[in-house]
Predict the structure.
Amino acid sequence: MKSNLQSIRKEYIKGALTRNSMPSNPFTLFNDWLEQAIEGEVNEPTAVLVSTVSPEGTPSARTVLLKGVENNELVFYTNYKSRKGTHLAQNPHLALTFLWHELERQIHIEGIAHKLDPKTSDEYYNQRPYRSRIGARISPQSQPIPSRMQLLRSFIKESSRWIGKDIERPEFWGGYGVIPSRFEFWQGRPSRLHDRFLYELNKDGEWIINRIAP
Ligand SMILES: Cc1cc2nc3c(=O)[nH]c(=O)nc-3n(C[C@H](O)[C@H](O)[C@H](O)COP(=O)(O)O)c2cc1C
């Protein structure tokens, strides 16, 4: 390693959070921040790290793209037989992490995932580009495959099978809706004295807000 990692550091100066500026419902701030990330020059503003836990209790994380915020649920699409899908089938608890470097912001969300109803997954699948629909059908996501060549052969074979027809969504591919029970909003501040606000649902379904230490 040529670079001196210990010397890489920056001051965070782009924003601030105060208790008075925090809305009572975390979705309000989540939607504002997401909108600002989309409108700003943020690279991949909808990219979100999804962390799941295996039945043995081992954590794992990977990035997906957020495809909706509806009825207080966050929606992403994937292969239900993938590693994350098999984890969620046994333990629906997950964590989502949005990191928007350009805004010096991060949001941590924890909640429970459930499969979307097939009709909703169909609607999204049917509006995906042709190649993405074929790709979803032929990729045994997270499984070992012999070669890239074999993947391409499957892609070409499957493409020719659907010429002139509506490509069907495979039952192993679809959406998850995430129902959050915890949000943490992080805004970088100078001297590492960052602003962090935590929203947690209490037993009565009310959001309790606390500033937490950086
Ligand atoms: C920017 C970005 C966006 C991605 N979006 C998705 C997505 O929306 N759905 C998906 O299944 N995988 C997506 N991936 C691939 C996943 O990170 C991951 O490789 C895949 O879902 C398999 O994960 P698993 O084996 O842990 O289940 C994306 C990767 C990147 C880097």
Observations:
- The pocket of flavin mononucleotide is lined by residues 44, 47, 60, 62-65, 76-79, 82-84, 141-142 (CB under 6 Å).
- The chain has a mean pLDDT of 97.
- Strands lie at 47-53, 59-70, 73-79, 93-100, 105-115, 173-187, 195-201, 207-212.
- The chain has one domain: 11-125+175-212.
